[in-house]
């Protein structure tokens, strides 16, 4: 059963300007393993984290660092969750989180589906 859905879109140029203007933004939003990625990949990961929170329904004290976006050996995206993010899923009975993300034509977009019994 679907327990939540979330979508987010990020304007790449605007995101890049924010990153350039605010030096502490990247370390605050992204885990160490995410930080070295190109700006379009960072924007897609930011959209993914926003979509996750929307699918969950609230942030319930979840920090950006607890939502890590990774890709498997085939390039498929997913989340590695830590701390409060993991606890929030357990509290809500969510057993699966699905993620897709893309970037093209000056935007990055992500869609999250959460499922459970």
UniProtKB/TrEMBL annotation:
Which gene is transcribed and translated to give this protein?
A: acpS
Arranged from A to Z, the UniProt key words for this protein are: Cytoplasm, Fatty acid biosynthesis, Fatty acid metabolism, Lipid biosynthesis, Lipid metabolism, Magnesium, Metal-binding, Transferase
**Molecular function terms from GO:** holo-[acyl-carrier-protein] synthase activity; magnesium ion binding
InterPro entries linked = 4-PPantetheinyl_Trfase_dom, 4-PPantetheinyl_Trfase_dom_sf, ACPS, Ppantetheine-prot_Trfase_dom
Tell me which Pfam families the record gives. Answer: ACPS (PF01648)
Name its GO BP terms in alphabetical order. fatty acid biosynthetic process
**Which reaction is catalysed here?**
apo-[ACP] + CoA = holo-[ACP] + adenosine 3',5'-bisphosphate + H(+)
Entry's EC annotation: 2.7.8.7
Cofactor(s) of this protein: Mg(2+)
Q: What is this protein called?
A: Holo-[acyl-carrier-protein] synthase
Segments forming domain 4'-phosphopantetheinyl transferase: 4-88
For this protein, the record's NCBIfam families field holds: acpS (TIGR00516), pantethn_trn (TIGR00556), PRK00070.3-2 (NF000832)
The text of the family note is: Belongs to the P-Pant transferase superfamily. AcpS family.
Coarsely, its chief localization is cytoplasm
General function of this protein:
Transfers the 4'-phosphopantetheine moiety from coenzyme A to a Ser of acyl-carrier-protein.
Which residues take part in binding Mg(2+)?
8, 50
Q: Which domain of life is it from?
A: Bacteria
One GO CC term on file: cytoplasm
Q: Where in the cell is it found?
A: Cytoplasm
